[in-house]
Each structure stands twice: as structure tokens, then as C-alpha cells.
Amino acid sequence: MKTLVVLPAFNEATTITEVIASLPPEFDRVVIDDGSTDKTGDIARDAGVRVVTHRVNRGLGAALRTGFAFAVRGGYDAVVTLDADGQHDPAEIGQLLVALEGGADIVIGRRIQSHMPRIRQYYNAIGGIITSGLFGTPMVDAQSGFRALRTEALQRMELRTSRMEISSEVIAEAHRIHLRISEVPISVRYTEYSLSKGQSLGEGARTAWRLFMRSVS
Amino acid sequence: MGRPVIMQLVLSLLAAISVYRVALRVRARQMGRALAGVWCSGVVVFLLFVWHPEFATRVSDFLGIGRGVDAALYIGVALLFYGVLRIIIRLDQQDDTLTKLVSEIALLHDATRNSDLGPRK
After folding, report:
1. ipTM of the predicted structure?
2. Given an 8 Å threshold on Cβ–Cβ distance, is B119 in contact with A74?
3. pTM summary value
4. Is residue A102 classed exposed, middle or buried when 0-12, 13-18 and 19+ CB atoms within 10 A define those classes?
């Protein structure tokens, strides 16, 4: 299975080198630099990966959509996405791909709850409830950024969001077009840095609002 | 209908201006005739409320609201809510268009820059 690893990155100069170095060398890799104002793009390029650069910051969803389009045009069979802040373990990519080869269209890395700070567990639970409520999807780790997707499935999805809400939108779209979703437990490494980059209550509320608007528009 | 008062005249003037602007937009082909019809119907209802307060009272009785002015307020709020919703949806669509544009420019730039390379490992 020809696989592309997509790293969406916005101002990740602190961690990007380490994350790129930890990626298994057998996969093609691309960093989507989402309009960073630090040296993320240059550092990634120096680390030897291809970098696609958004001229302006458009958000996580936009960066992922660019990565998906890159994979489709490049003739890849599968895409693996993971966060550029170092919270995911690239050594677990293989487990996601095994599940994909087992027949799933989308595999979501379900974060082991006990590895997460309590506040993140709450955000995650609320995100799951909102996704289920708005789109009628079964509960999954809706906000996990560590995923594997078949490009064939991506081509059938109609993704319209540009920011954090894409995580839930992918699940909603998968549900709408009857794709097979599988979950694989993954470890997660939270650091002070990764905690400062992720969800907050305000961002969660904005994501919920945009998801609501996505469901009515 | 009683003697015209200043407020009725001012509101009628505003209604006339809005119809004039709708007509201009239709002539410039910036608005369809169907939407213009909806706007004009709204203006007619507005003028009915302004010049025939008893009409508002009949509507409020029908809706079970009480006073005519309350019915006008409720309907106004509902229309404003609908208008804001439309604007948000339009902004959302423009946001998506902007994202597609940024993405396409990024991919084209990358393809030009790496025309002889595949993705590097």
C-alpha cells in the first residue's frame, strides 16, 4: 500500500525536526506548512522532507485538505496524518495501516484515556458527544489527529471546513457515505509544549459552533 | 387610518428608499426578480404595519401574541435572525473558497518547484 505521511504544521519550529526524524523512513512524507510565521517550513525542508506552503494561515482543516489533495494527485493508496507537536508516536503508524489493510476505510488512533490529562479527557468526551449529536455518528475519539485514510475514501468525501472541526467532519462524512471506520488504541505523549498547542475551552466552543453551522448550511 | 404622523412618513420614506435600491440592483443584474419580489412583498407588509396598526393587531391576535407592536417586534427579530444566518452561511462559503484557493496555489507552487522530484523520503 503506497502510503503518504502528512504532517500539518503551524509554527512548530520547536518540534518539527524531532518529529520528522522519528518518522519511519519507508514512507513518503510531506509537511503542510500552514502559513507559519516562524521557520517551520525552512527547518522541515532542511530535514529533508517535501514542504507544501500555504501563503496564509488557514487552519488545521485546510492543511489536511491540502495534504489529502497532494496524496490523491500523487497516486497514493493511503494517507496517515499525525500532529507535528510530537504527541503521537510514529512507530504506531504500522498498527493503523494493518487495520486499513484489514478492510477499514478510515482508522482512527484512539488515545488511551489514562494517558491523557483529565481536562483533555473532558474536552474529548464533549467533542465526541457533539459529533454524535450533530451528525448521528457513533462515539469515537473524534478529535484524534493520528489517523490513516484510504485516498479512495477521501475522494468520495465532501470536506468543507478549514479549522479544528475537520476532525469531526471527516467522521461525519464517513458516516454519511457509509465508510468503514475502525479504531486502534494509541499511546499519546503530552508535554507542556503540546498541551499549549491543542484544544482550549474557547477553541472547543468555536469548533462546536462551526460544526453546528456546517450541519445546517 | 388617522392623520399621518412624522414617524409614519419617515418609515415610508425608508421603505421607498429600500424599494429604489432593490430596483437599482435588479437593473444592474445583481439581484434576481424573484428575490426582488420577496423584498417588495416585505416592504408592502411593513407599510401595512406602519399605516394600518389594526392590521398588526389582527396578526398578533391570530398568532396569540397580544399587542400588534409585539407581533411586529417578534417578526422583525425572526427576520433579522434569518438575515444573520444567511450572512454567516455566505461567509462560510467564502471561507471555503479562500481555503481552496490557498491550497491550490500551494500545490501549484510545489509542483512547479519540484517538477523533477517525487516526494522526498
Report:
1. 0.83
2. yes
3. 0.76
4. exposed
